[in-house]
């Protein structure tokens, strides 16, 4: 498996120095490093299964949208938008709902990482549509668990959910899937994400795209500083920032929980 890593503060040796860890914490939030380490777990599992026909993009930005996507796996069998959570505990993923239990009562989490993952997938889909690919281009959003201490009770969730002990099985299913892209198409998609065609500010404004916000601003995935009540974790503020403007704001609106529920 090939890896294109654009993680901020990461050295050529794949490490983040103590000083840069402090800088990253100040810029992206206290739990950004936990998400980065969680990604390492998934990457190690994928590396055992996936060959060089697959490329993993790590923490890449989508030009024009201002969105930073944690992991995008691209290969002959499709495009997989992956969010790896470092959470522990017992959770339920039902439809577009995400939460824990207090006794026998379901308690929605204050940060819905199921909808968040779906929005990341939609961000990539929207980006590719703007690059000329049809809306039917296969993009699958997947929530991955990095910690064996996380148990997820899944009941027809809106994204695929993969627990820690099934990461390699997921990678194997990706390899064994039906090929939908030629080698040339895979390379073209990779190039359009990592080396997007340049556009003038006037062209971006015409498309309803404004400049991305700086780290720490409110973002469209709802990644504020609110702690998750079940695990005491704050998802990284800087992991997915982009403005809610123009055509993309409409696509985000289509992924709000109530809209998704109507689609099911």
Which helices and strands, and how do they pair?
Elements: E1 2-5, H1 18-28, H2 32-47, E2 55-62, E3 67-75, E4 78-85, E5 89-94, E6 97-102, E7 105-108, H3 113-130, E8 139-145, E9 150-155, E10 160-162, H4 167-176, H5 183-194, H6 201-206, H7 246-253, H8 257-263
Parallel strand pairs: 1-2, 4-8, 5-9, 8-10
Antiparallel strand pairs: 2-3, 3-4, 5-6, 6-7
Question: How would you sum up this structure, described in words?
Answer:
- By secondary structure, this protein is an alpha/beta fold.
- The protein has one domain.
- The protein has a six-stranded mixed beta sheet with strand order 1-2-3-4-8-10, with helices on both faces.
- The C terminus is likely disordered.
Give short descriptive properties of this protein.
single chain, 264 residues, disordered C terminus, 8 helices, 33% helix, alpha/beta
Strand residue percentage? 15-25%
Tell me, rounded to a whole number, the average pLDDT.
80
The major pleated sheet works out as: 6 strands, mixed
Instruction: Give the count of structural domains.
Output: 1
- Please bin the fraction of helical residues: 25-40%
Radius of gyration equals 18 Å
Separation of the first and last Cα atoms: 35 Å
Write out the strand line-up for the largest beta sheet, numbering strands in chain order. Answer: 1-2-3-4-8-10
Low-confidence parts: 208-253, 257-264
The DSSP helix count reads 8
- Quaternary status: single chain
Summing up helix and strand content along with how strands pair, one would put the structural category as alpha/beta
Instruction: Sum up the overall morphology in one term.
Output: globular
Order of helices and strands: EHHEEEEEEHEEEHHHHH
Number of strands: 10
């Amino acid at each position: 498996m090939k890896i294109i890593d654009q993680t901020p503060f990461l050295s050529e040796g794949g490490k983040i120095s103590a000083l840069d860890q402090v800088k990253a914490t100040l810029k992206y939030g206290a739990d950004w490093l936990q998400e980065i380490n969680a990604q390492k777990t998934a990457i190690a599992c994928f590396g055992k299964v996936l060959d060089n026909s697959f490329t993993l993009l790590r923490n890449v930005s989508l030009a024009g949208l201002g969105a930073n996507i944690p992991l995008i796996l691209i290969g002959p069998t499709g495009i997989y938008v992956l969010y790896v959570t470092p959470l522990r505990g017992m959770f339920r993923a039902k439809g577009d709902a995400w939460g824990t239990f207090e006794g026998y009562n379901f308690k929605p989490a204050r940060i819905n990482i199921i909808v968040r993952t779906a929005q990341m997938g939609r961000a990539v889909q929207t980006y590719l549509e703007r690059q000329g690919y049809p809306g039917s281009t296969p993009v699958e959003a997947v929530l991955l668990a990095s910690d064996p201490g996380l148990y997820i009770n899944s009941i027809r969730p809106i994204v695929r959910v993969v627990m820690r002990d099934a990461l390699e099985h997921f990678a194997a299913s990706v390899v064994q899937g039906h090929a939908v892209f030629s080698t040339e198409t895979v390379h073209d998609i990779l190039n359009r994400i990592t080396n997007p065609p340049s556009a003038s500010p006037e062209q971006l404004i015409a498309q309803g795209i404004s400049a991305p916000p700086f780290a720490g601003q409110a973002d469209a995935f709802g990644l504020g500083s609110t702690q998750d009540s079940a695990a005491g974790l704050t998802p990284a503020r800087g992991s997915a920032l982009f403005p809610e403007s123009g055509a993309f704001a409409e696509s985000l609106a289509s992924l709000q929980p109530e809209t998704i529920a109507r689609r099911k």
